[in-house]
Amino acid sequence: MSHHETTERIVLCFDRDRTVSVNPHPEHRAVPIGYIQWWAHVEEIPVWCTGNQHLRVETEAPGIQEAEYLWEEHIAGEEYEYENSQFEDYWKPRRRDGLRLVRDLYEAAFPDEDFRFVVVDDADVSDLEDEGPWTHYFPWDFVEAVESGDFALEEPPSDAYRNEGVPFNSTNQPDFEYDQKRELRQIQKRVRTPVGSEK
């Protein structure tokens, strides 16, 4: 599906507020929630909810809590060391620290594979591109890239979801099967026992 020759695996990270259609930006286009649901559950692309964690329920995709669990129980055997987050003040890590956790998780679990980490966020986190294989998109630029065919993944079909603003938990009949734990099992299968942290 990629528009260029590469062996990189894409990992998608989505903010929620002012980014996704369930809480869109007042002045710009938002990412249809159906895109996220389609890629995560039909195409089985790794998708992580790294902003407002309500998106985990709305898309049935994993978030920061699941990433921390995998790191502590299957990768390092100890808590992840966030660089800039103080939990006296924050119930979840700051934006960039959560994204770094997802990156470190994949690089530790799959050391022989190359990844491209894509973050879609209305906040500018493009400075992460200096740290590793990150690409930042503002949501309106991301939608345009997907629609124009400039993004590495194909646009989900227009009939893939009932309404672009409808989350899974708002209907008794979601448009397709979903499995929130699939990506977690993939990582657990790769690292069956905890190993020492290389950090």
UniProtKB/TrEMBL annotation:
Renumbered residue ranges of the record's region Disordered: 155-179
Protein's name according to its UniProt entry: Adaptin protein
Organism: Halorientalis pallida
